[in-house]
Amino acid sequence: MDKVLDGQIALITGASSGIGAGVSKSLAAAGATVIVNYPVAGTKEAAQAVLDEITSAGGKGIIAQCDVSKEDEVTKLFADIVAQFGTLDILVNNAGLQRDAKFEDMTLEQWNTVIDVNLTGQFLCARAAIREFLRRGPRPEVSSATGKIICMSSVHEQIPWAGHVNYAASKGAIKMLMQSLAQEYGDRQIRVNSICPGAIQTPINKDAWSTTQAYNSLMTLIPYNRIGKPQDIGNLAVFLASDQSDYITGASIFIDGGMTVLESFSDNG
Ligand code: NAD
């Protein structure tokens, strides 16, 4: 792979598993120095395993603990990154979770947990990244853009999702967070885009692919007839972080094997 991200510093939140781990590996393979974020002590080993894979392939990075829903922890994470690396070039706002329930049974705690991580976490990290991009100004030696933010959204910013109202609401809100930021900071050459994955094989949706019956049922929703892999998302993240996508900002890019163009989605929900 071309080292299109050589000399750039990238933070990937929620990177000890799934899509965040895949994106970290892809960005590192493209030359970025990656900060592999994990939320709590219990996920440190998994984050270290991701970093070990990166370094044994010749990549560079560190692991860093931070709960993205906590303002003080996000502030400290960004201060540490600037102290160690001088600045940040790329933020991948990936951390996310689900707390599923029928709407009539959904507790305020389930609602708040999802909004706190999936939405407020992206707000806090995006704000810290924008502040750093504005403080530092352009770095034409590494990129045409002053900074790049990639928000991990979902097909569920567009497809309603019964039984997952808190999750769908958080992703719908990410669409407007992303577009409004792209509008507000375009004139400072800060690019903000969303990746909207369909079904990607990760721990978050294990129930949807871990048995043959579940997998076959999932395939009725996916015209391309395979589940997505974290590497698919990693490839898109490299493109969105690089100057190859220099004229793209404010875009939601769907990467879903055709899920969003399948008319019968609701028949299978
Ligand atoms: P995952 O469960 O493997 O990854 C989520 C990561 O977020 C985990 O590593 C977890 O430790 C981390 N995390 C949770 N709370 C955190 C916090 N407070 N601070 C920092 N990190 C925290 O699942 P995934 O599928 O890799 O999900 C990654 C992102 O992709 C999420 O935003 C999810 O909504 C989105 N997504 C996934 C799919 C899919 O099919 N897998 C589809 C659409 C969107």
TrEMBL record:
Database matches in SUPFAM superfamilies: NAD(P)-binding Rossmann-fold domains (SSF51735)
Domain of life: Bacteria
Gene Ontology terms for molecular function: oxidoreductase activity, acting on the CH-OH group of donors, NAD or NADP as acceptor
Family under the similarity heading: Belongs to the short-chain dehydrogenases/reductases (SDR) family.
Name of the protein this chain belongs to: Glucose 1-dehydrogenase
